[in-house]
Amino acid sequence: MDILITHIKTLVQVSDTPPAFRAGQDMSELPVINDAYLYIKGGRIGGYGPMSGLEPFRKQLGTRKLREINATGRMVFPCWCDAHTHLVYPASREMEYVDKIRGLSYEDIAKRGGGILNSAARTAVVSEEELFEDAMPRLEEIARYGTGAVEIKSGYGLTTESELKMLRVIRRLKERSPLTIRATFLGAHSIPMEYRGRQHEYVDLVINEMIPLVASEGLADFIDVFCDKGFFTVEDTERMLMAGLKYGLVPKIHANELDYSGGIQTGVKYGALSVDHLEYTGDAEIEALKGSGTMPTILPGAAFFLGMPPAPARKMIDAGLPLALASDFNPGSSPSGNMQLIISMGCIQYRMLPEEAINAATLNGACAMGLEQELGTITVGKMANVFITREMPSIAFFPYYYGSNRVETVILNGKVIRPTGR
User: Fold this and answer.
1) First CA to last CA distance, the chain
2) Which of 9, 117, 293, 354 has the lowest CB atom count within 10 Å?
3) Which CATH number among 1.10.275.10, 2.30.40.10, 1.10.3520.10, 2.60.40.10 corresponds to the domain 2-78+378-418?
4) Contacts (Cβ under 8 Å, ≥6 apart) of 223
5) Are 318 and 285 within 8 A, CB to CB?
6) 233: number of Cβ within 10 Å
7) What is the per-residue pLDDT across 202-237, written as a single tens digit (0 to 9) for each?
8) Is the distance from CB of 5 to CB of 17 less than 8 angstroms?
9) Alpha-carbon distance 365 to 8, whole Å?
10) Which secondary-structure segment (H or E) carries 213?
11) Is the per-residue pLDDT at 422 higher than 50?
């Protein structure tokens, strides 16, 4: 049934002809309509405007059956587009969390077989069904916080069998969940212990065995590599990206989380859709990103959880770059997919304006997944992935009032998945 939302206090991120992304000063632009209506038809945005124009619009609709929602005092946003997660995983890792409190670093834990290798060992012994049953509630949870599109990576397999298992789970999630999901093959998430000292052989395995099998089953949209200190070199990364491109896998890169790794420049060189993390981003990296078409994506949850210096978001925006925000939802370094919290962190820790953070989590997040033509703004013809807030005095209240869920109703593909309760 079509939906008509009326008396919307503020309809946010409205655009008749939206750009592919917003960058630099334009990130502070957030078009809105106050006292608005929104019409959803057949799972798509069918129309919108000020309430003063509702009656003429109703006449155009004729006697069509509608579900009407009165949003008095509430705002409507396009759903968040979370462009970097690892939410398919076999178990939590809270003991490593305690180790971090005791002073061990991310690298210390990884060297002794913890971190990614811990999750990989557990992935090897659980079934595809168990992974699926664990992941589905996480998808439902992030939807309740307003996420309507999400990228999910493999990478807790590190063997051909386990990587394929994870990607098949992601495919099942795509089929069962109302969220829009993009899958990323991340066989190069870490170097297995048995390949330490001969990691070129593991890179060969990724190139010669994993990538062809992933592609033959159509399991992934993207290929990702952890190009950073203690993980994969620029040379390793280039080899794997070139192999992925031959099979139609668009590059994404974990870059510059732990050091100046060359990952950002490598991502730009190979036309990566996004480069993610970016704690170590200097003038050379910013210059490489300018005009590149690669979306810089920062992950505040990981930097916060690991106690790392934040990426220089303010410097990047002031230099004219676009930015996306994503959750990095994973069991080891960012065990939360709450994009509302990520937006608050963007404002508090990264000095982003509320409008900039919202652009980063909607339109720019969609662009970081190649979904900017379908999602990220309230635009006629785009998918009807929107949410209705609880009553709020202003847009800035969203990141200001952190810690509680400000989303009341979620609509995905034109269907209400969380009733208003009113």
Assistant:
1) 19
2) 293
3) 2.30.40.10
4) 184, 185, 186, 211, 240, 241, 244, 245, 249, 250, 251, 252
5) no
6) 19
7) 999 999 999 999 999 999 999 999 999 999 999 999
8) no
9) 24
10) helix 211-216
11) no
Per the CB < 8 A criterion, the answer to whether 136 and 177 are in contact is yes
Residue pair 24/321 in contact (Cβ under 8 Å)? The answer is yes
- Contacts of residue 380, defined as CB under 8 A and 6 or more positions apart, other chains included, come to 16, 44, 45, 46, 47, 48
Reported as a pLDDT band with limits 50, 70 and 90, residue 115 is confident
Residue type (1 letter), 269: K
Amino acid identity for residue 170 in this structure: I
Q: Is 276 helix (H, G, I), strand (E, B) or coil?
A: strand
Strands (E), 154-249: 180-188, 222-227
What is the pairing mode between strands 2-12 and 66-70? parallel
Distance of CA 269 to the CA centre of its chain: 22
Average pLDDT taken over every residue of the chain: 95
Query: What gap in Å lies between CA 44 and CA 372, rounded to an integer?
Result: 14
Domain boundary assignment for the chain: 2-78+378-418, 80-367
The answer to whether 85 and 69 are in contact (CB under 8 A) is no
What is the domain class of 80-367 according to CATH? alpha beta
Q: Tell me what pLDDT residue 418 has.
A: 64
User: Is 184:152 a contact under the CB 8 Å cutoff?
Assistant: yes
165 vs 23, 219, 250, 251, CA distance in Å?
38, 10, 21, 21
Q: How does strand 324-325 pair with strand 295-298?
A: parallel
Can you state the percent helix, strand and coil of the chain, rounding each to 5? 40, 25, 35
Mapping DSSP to helix (H, G, I), strand (E, B) and coil, where does residue 76 land? strand
72: tokens are 């008095």
**Model pLDDT for residues 271-287, shown as the tens digit of each residue:** 999 999 999 999 999 99
Would you state the structure tokens that stand for residue 368, as one six-digit string? 């970081």
Consecutive H or E run containing 345: helix 339-348
Whose tokens are 């069962």? That residue is 176
Token pair of 239, please?
Answer: 């080899």
- 166-203 burial by CB neighbour count: b if 16+ within 10 A, else e? bbbbbbbbeeebbbbbbbbbbbbbbbbeebeeebeebb
Sign of the alpha-carbon dihedral angle for 257, 254, 341, 357? positive
CB 322, CB 364: distance < 8 Å: yes
